[in-house]
Design a protein that fits this description.
Elements: H1 3-27, E1 42-43, E2 56-58, E3 64-66, E4 76-81, H2 88-101, E5 112-117, H3 124-138, E6 147-150, H4 154-164, E7 166-167, E8 169-171, E9 176-178, E10 182-186, E11 192-197, H5 203-214, E12 232-233, E13 238-239, H6 241-266, H7 273-283
Parallel strand pairs: 4-5, 5-6
Antiparallel strand pairs: 1-7, 2-3, 4-10, 8-9, 10-11, 12-13
Helix pairs in contact: 1-6, 2-3
Length: 284
């Protein structure tokens, strides 16, 4: 066996071993030990429903505001979070910033963004810190005047989340919320026009949603791949639904890449003219 052929054989063997290990790792994920998703957690698409514009909140400066203060002239991107969230909220905020940066529309000039905490214990000081991080990441002139972080009491939060179809649940054992990920685009009149799910959104889809909402047009209900906020539980030693899905997705990509590598390496090498000449000389 030539050096090249031997090397190819070793690489094929190594790739097959890596693929087997990847399959084993995915099979070992303790899905059977995971609790079922909370039945009360989800994101209902209440297209056409009007938000409670009279509900009162506090902005990141501590000023009392009405929800309706942010409507009337521009469409609004609404997302929910809580400011001590250990996992999904931070990823969702990063994804939203990235999606907003991908558009040729500007927060403050063309639309408003409302990030509303659904945790009554969150404070304006916490909201201000989150806003500073988001504005730095978004990095658009005038964004501070167009992206608002609100906190409120339980009744105002319940009125807004109920109207938007945002359903969440406190997990007492984990001491954190289980909640969905997504954003809602509302019209200038405060009617729910479009839902986008996940932690990052196509700038094209988001821009189109804002343009339609600026004309008070309503979208339609879309199929949703609901992403719920779960956690890694160090006491139980297992990941929750979000982490499991992420690892499985990464594992699937790894298997595809390794499969392609095996196919390429397993192909017989084409003989070059030099190889043919060398073989002829050895035969002679």
């Amino acid at each position: 066996m030539s050096y090249v052929a031997g090397t190819r054989a070793l690489l094929v063997t190594a790739a097959m071993m890596l693929a087997a290990n990847s399959l084993h790792a995915q099979a070992a994920l303790p899905l059977e030990n995971l609790p079922p998703p909370p039945q009360n957690v989800g994101f209902d698409q209440n297209i056409g429903k009007t938000l409670p514009l009279e509900a009162t909140f506090k902005d990141e400066t501590g000023k009392a505001v009405r929800l309706g203060d942010y409507f009337g002239k521009k469409p609004v991107v609404l997302n929910f979070a809580y400011f001590t969230c250990p996992m999904l909220c931070g990823l969702s905020m990063q994804g939203l910033s990235s999606s907003l940066k991908g558009m040729n529309l500007d927060a403050g000039r063309d639309f408003e963004v409302l990030t509303v905490s659904f945790e009554p214990k969150d404070t304006p000081d916490m909201a201000r810190a989150k806003k500073e991080t988001a504005i730095q990441r978004y990095a658009r002139p005038g964004a501070a005047a167009g992206w608002h972080f609100l906190t409120g009491d339980a009744s105002s939060i319940a009125a807004l989340t109920s109207a938007a179809g945002f359903r969440y649940e406190w997990d007492a054992a984990a001491k954190q919320y289980a909640h969905p990920a997504g954003i809602v685009v509302a019209t200038t009149e405060g009617k729910l026009a479009r839902y986008l799910f996940g932690i990052e959104y196509s700038p094209r889809d988001l821009r189109l949603s804002l343009v339609e909402a600026s004309q008070n047009k309503l979208g339609s209900v879309v199929d949703q791949l609901l992403l719920l906020c779960y956690h890694y539980d160090p006491k139980a030693g297992r990941y929750g639904a979000f982490a499991i899905d992420s690892m499985r997705g990464a594992g699937a990509l790894t298997l595809l890449a390794l499969g392609a590598l095996v196919i390429v390496l397993a192909r017989p090498a084409k003989k070059t003219k030099n190889d043919a000449d060398s073989s002829a000389r050895r035969g002679a």
